[in-house]
Structure formats: structure tokens, C-alpha cells
Amino acid sequence: MDFVARISKEWRRRMLFLFLMIFGIAGWFLYDGYIMWPNEQQRYEEYTLIKDGLIDSGDAVDEESSSVKLAWQRHAKEAGYVNKTPKERTDSSISEQLTIGWVMTSGSLLFALWIAWNHTRSVRGEGDIVIGASGERVELDSIVAFDLKKWKNKGIAYAIYKDEDKNRRLTLDDHKFKGCEVVMVEAKKRIKARSANADELAMNS
User: Fold this and answer.
1) 136 and 98, same domain (yes or no)
2) Pairing relation of β-strands 137-139 and 129-131?
3) Which helix (H) or strand (E) holds 3?
């Protein structure tokens, strides 16, 4: 039984989507930290000068006064700003945005490397030997049963095999490594054949 089960297109698409999502969010934080928030802080400082000047002169009671809002709208229009009242963006809050952005950028790049590394892995069949994704070598005839609890929802099966009188598990992730199902088909045939032979021997003895 010779085969090679490599990374599936579905798994690749899902991982690339996650990478782009994380990388995009990281870019959003960095854009805020380097451009949007410093610019808004500059507008806030200009807004504060206008507000404090009107309050100090007695032309406004507080920042909720209509005179403050109208004065800012006039200034914003002249300067080419949006009319929305700017928020204060402190140095610490801007630094926090940048920290989150760079941490997420680093994480997304590490995630990309992990995806690339997974593309070097596979599940292979060479004659009567199955070579798992982690390099474990399992004889087909040593497989005695399957754990299929995750097969229906996740496409993951565990082949239970004997190794020096101990039961071990070989992971067959058909969602990730498309083609692993052939191991189940072949191993089940052999399990059924061994069971039939055992029954026949028992009847003849």
C-alpha cells in the first residue's frame, strides 16, 4: 500500500485565512499607533485650546456648550478635519497600541512559519508500513482497532496498534492530511481477515 497524504487544500485555506486575519488586526493596531492616534491627539490639543479659550473668556460653560461645538466645527472645516470631536490619545495609550500591534505581527509571522513547516509533513504508506506525520512507523498488521469519536465532526481517527504488548495510537487526520482514510480501509480489511481466520481456527480445533 503506497500512498502520500499531504496537506489538504481545505486546511491550507483555513490556516491562511487565520494568518491574514491576525496579520490584518496587527496592521490595524500599528496603523492606529503610528498614524491615526497621533493625528487625533494633535487634533485634540487644538480642540482643547479652542475649548479652554472659550471657557476662560466666559463664552462657554463647558465642552458641552454649543459655542464650543460650533467653534470646533468651523476650525475642523478650515483645517480639513472631520467634524467629530477628537478624543485624547495619551503617549501611554499610543504605546500600548504599538506594543499590541508588534506582538501580533510577530505572532502572525511565527504562525506563518508553522504553516510552512506543516507543509513539509505528510502521512505515507510504504508497503505494509504506515509512516505518521511525526515520523512514527506502524505496521498495518499491528493495528487492532480504531477510535472514531472525532471522525464524523473533525475527520480525525486514531489507529490503535500494538507495540511490544502496549497499545499506542497513530493519529490519522484526514482533514489536515487528505488521503489518510486509505489506512483505515486497508487496516479494517486486515482486522476483519484476522478475525475470520481466528474464528475458522476456533471452529476447526
Assistant:
1) no
2) antiparallel
3) strand 3-5
Walk along the chain (205 residues) and give the pLDDT tens digit of each residue: 799 999 999 999 999 999 999 999 999 999 999 999 999 999 999 999 999 999 888 888 888 888 989 999 999 999 999 889 999 999 999 999 999 999 999 999 999 999 999 999 999 999 999 999 999 999 999 999 999 999 999 999 999 999 888 999 999 999 999 999 999 999 999 999 988 877 677 777 6
Residue that is written with C-alpha cell 475649548 in the block: 51
Judge if 85 and 186 occupy the same domain: no
Grid cell of 12 as nine digits = 491550507
Handedness of CA 98, 100, 103, 109 (dihedral sign): negative
Backbone φ and ψ of 168, nearest 5°: -125, 170
Three-state SS at 90: coil
Inside any domain, residue 18: yes
- Among 2, 7, 8, 4, which Cα is nearest to 123's? 4
What DSSP character marks residue 205? Answer: -
User: Is there a domain that residue 70 lies in?
Assistant: yes
Q: Are residues 44 and 85 in the same domain?
A: yes
Domain boundaries, position 153:
123-204
Whether the CB-CB separation of 39 and 84 falls below 8 Å is answered with: no
